[in-house]
Amino acid sequence: MAIAGKILTVGRDHRDLILRLLVALPGGYSLAGLGGVCLSLWLPLSRADDAMAGILFGLVIWPVVFIVSFGLSSVRRLLAGLAGGLLVLALLTIESGWRP
After folding, report:
1. How many domains does the chain have?
2. What is the pLDDT of residue 97?
3. What distance in Å separates the CA atoms of residue 64 and residue 70, rounded to the nearest whole number?
4. Comparing C-alpha atoms, which of 23, 42, 40 is closest to residue 80?
């Protein structure tokens, strides 16, 4: 959107969009997958119910991460939040006794 006094930088906008896509797609997928595994290990249900809850959790998390990636003001904040979330989920998953 053109605003008076603002110089449009088309190349930078395209680069920002591509960076956000490259972070949102694999980063959101990994966060959703790790979150599903973590949730399925921590829930006190049967194995089938744990797996189903983990899958459904992942299906909810990935679009949320994708939407948030375009809502944040900078790519650095996006990377920091995604890395922090992955670290917390990895530590919780390892704490529950899961070994890859």
Report:
1. 1
2. 81
3. 10
4. 23
